[in-house]
Amino acid sequence: MCFIIALRIDKLEYADDVALLDGNAETAQERLSLLNPAANSEGGLNIAAHKSFLQHVKKMQRVTRTTEEDVEKMDFKSQCPDPLFSCT
User: Fold this and answer.
1) What is the pLDDT of residues 46-84, one digit of tens each?
2) d(Cα 38, Cα 31) in Å, to the nearest integer?
3) Alpha carbon of residue 52 to chain centroid
4) β-sheet bridge partners, residue 13
5) Do the Cβ atoms of 54 and 28 come closer than 8 Å?
6) Taking a C-beta distance cutoff of 8 angstroms, is the pair 22, 9 a contact?
7) Is this prediction's pTM over 0.70?
């Protein structure tokens, strides 16, 4: 017999800290709008806007090594005549 268990975590909590995981900013705003009054009335907690932030997370794309050919194709605003000296 085989069992497949799907688990979706939509919040992480520790003491008076919480991380809400949502698929978009609108859903996060709706959750915060509902959470703040409930947290205040149920536990005397308030969301501190100055300590709150939004972090976008997305799948990372694989990056390949830069080759000499890639560098030659780049359009630089200035070129250094000698690689031992830096230009500004």
Assistant:
1) 888 888 888 877 777 888 888 888 888 888 777 676 666
2) 11
3) 13
4) 18
5) yes
6) no
7) no
Under 8 Å between Cβ of 49 and 60: no
Q: With CA atoms as reference, report the closest residue to 54 among 27, 16, 15.
A: 27
**32 secondary structure, DSSP code:** H
- pLDDT (tens digit, 9 = 90+) per residue, 2-54? 455 666 677 777 777 878 888 888 888 888 888 888 888 888 888 888 888 88
Give dist(CA 51, CA 19) in Å, integer: 12
CA distance 8 to 11: 9
CA angle, 39 then 10 then 24, to 5°: 95
Rounded Cα distance between 31 and 22, Å, is 9
pLDDT value of residue 87: 59
Q: Which two tokens stand for residue 57?
A: 């997370």
Contact partners, residue 86, CB within 8 Å, separation at least 6: 80
